[in-house]
Design goal:
465 residues, mainly alpha, globular, disordered C terminus, Arsenical_pump_ArsB, Diverse_Ion_Transporter, arsenite transmembrane transporter activity
């Protein structure tokens, strides 16, 4: 196949694959895997080249964390946390919404946002039933909180996992550079959502007492397993924090944590591996090959050259362009394939433009892709997961209903991110100021949804399905 024909063919396969993923007519894992098969059969890439383009660090990190979380969820600790938060909010629906959003954001940063919503949504339905309130506002807030929280760390959102693997940026790099602005965006977003929903989710005092009567301890199913899981999870997160210093890939940390947990729990490996979302894994593998074909035939390099001409090779305009392009694109298409396309593009921009330090562009891509996923109901994997779980339980989240609330908030978050990136580039000391401000804002927010007082209550079990 001639070079020009290869360019046209690889581009066509990429666009068709992308269109099928967006249309959701065929499962995205099937679409990506079929696209990869066509690329190899057509001879654009041979098997060795295809394997080269698969980022096994990303794959390993995802598999390892899925196993750890899959075993941990059997303990009931996530249901415990949700009910404990609802009781701290004294059964008030609007404060429960904020408390569940906080847990969702924190767990999304420490685990990942897709896993977090899988854990939190069933409890949310149970609490909404007790309060006899509309569950949709809770779900919308949790979607937004999961994507915002996931932006803060290396392991919180698949785009960050991919960026970290491609750049060798570590866990603490993401925490130091992204968490301060994420905290500001999160608190402002939840404050606005509380204003929007404060009149829509009200309930009677006796129903609030039902929440206070729940006993969160009943949700812990296996104390011994819980201790082992929390110990291994703590060691794994510590490993992420230190992995740059001990010169180990993040995938090695995650897979080692999974192996240790399987060892100490004597869990049946076949049962434990059921918690791995294999369609997600194969989706990533297929996607890496399809995007790798574009890189191989020179399409990515040509786009990078054009981007350099548009921005004049200047870092600040390039970063802001990537931020807004990523945000708008990720709102309407899944941010995972978009980021998979952008990573080699940014690498080529650095190589062609002679830019040594590309970190500013990576933070722009991360903020744009992760926060942009909040723009529409199909913008991120966590969004789609919540839609499916809600529909199974008889609740429907409409595209326009979500869009009217989420898209303006997404734009606001990108404006804040843009100001942060501008200050980050022009005045580095601003990061220290913002970090201090973010800590104060977060502390005030946590105190606002907690009440130190206690209310005696009868123990009552809650059904989480």
């Amino acid at each position: 196949m001639e070079a020009q024909t290869q360019v046209i063919f690889a581009t066509a396969v990429f666009l068709v694959t992308y269109a099928i993923i967006v249309s959701e007519k065929i499962h995205r894992a099937v679409a990506a895997f079929c696209g990869a098969a066509v690329i190899i059969i057509a001879g654009i890439l041979n098997v060795e080249q295809a394997v080269h383009f698969v980022d096994f660090n990303t794959i390993g990190l995802l598999v390892g964390m899925m196993i750890i979380v899959g075993i941990t969820r059997q303990t009931g600790v996530f249901e415990y946390l949700a009910i404990k938060a609802a009781k701290q909010a004294k059964g008030e629906p609007i404060r429960i919404m904020a408390a569940l959003a906080f847990i969702t954001a924190v767990l999304s940063a420490l685990l990942d946002n897709v896993t977090t919503v899988l854990l939190i949504v069933p409890v949310t339905f149970a609490i909404a039933r007790q309060l006899q309130v509309n569950v949709i506002p809770f779900l919308i807030v949790e979607i937004l909180a999961s994507n915002i929280g996931g932006t803060a760390t290396l392991i919180g959102d698949p785009p960050n996992i991919m960026i970290g693997s491609a750049t060798k940026l570590g866990f603490m790099d993401f925490v130091v550079n992204l968490t301060p602005v994420v905290v500001v965006i999160y608190v402002l977003t939840i404050f606005i959502l509380k204003l929007i929903y404060r009149r829509q989710i009200t309930t009677r005092p006796e129903l609030m007492q039902n929440i206070m009567a729940m006993d969160e301890k009943d949700e812990i199913k296996d104390q011994a397993l819980l201790k082992k899981c929390l110990t291994v999870l703590a060691l794994t997160i510590t490993g992420f924090v230190l992995h740059q210093f001990v010169h180990l890939e993040s995938s090695v940390i995650a897979l080692s944590g999974a192996a240790l947990l399987l060892l100490v729990t004597r869990m049946d490996p076949e049962h434990a591996l059921h918690s791995v979302e294999w369609p997600v894994i194969f989706f990533f593998i297929g996607l890496f090959v399809v995007v790798g074909a574009l890189e191989e035939v020179g399409v990515i390099e040509a786009i990078a050259q054009y981007a350099l001409e548009v921005t004049g090779g200047a870092l600040l305009p390039a970063g802001l362009l990537i931020l807004w392009l990523s945000a708008v694109a990720s709102a309407f298409v899944d941010n995972i394939p978009f980021v998979a396309t952008m990573i080699p593009l940014i690498h080529d921009m650095g190589r062609l433009g002679g830019i040594q330090d590309l970190n500013f562009l990576w933070w722009s891509l991360s903020l744009g892709a992760c926060l942009g996923g909040n723009g529409t109901i199909i913008g991120a994997s966590a969004n789609v997961v919540v839609i499916g779980m809600a529909e199974k339980r008889g609740s429907h989240i409409g595209f326009m209903g979500f869009f009217k609330i989420a898209f303006p908030l997404m734009l606001l978050s990108i404006v804040i991110a843009m100001l942060y990136l501008f200050l980050w580039y022009t005045l580095p000391v601003a990061k220290v100021i913002l970090a201090t401000l973010a800590f104060g804002i977060l502390l005030a927010f946590v105190l606002s949804i907690m009440d130190r007082g206690s209310t005696p209550a009868q123990n009552q079990k809650i059904s989480v399905k």
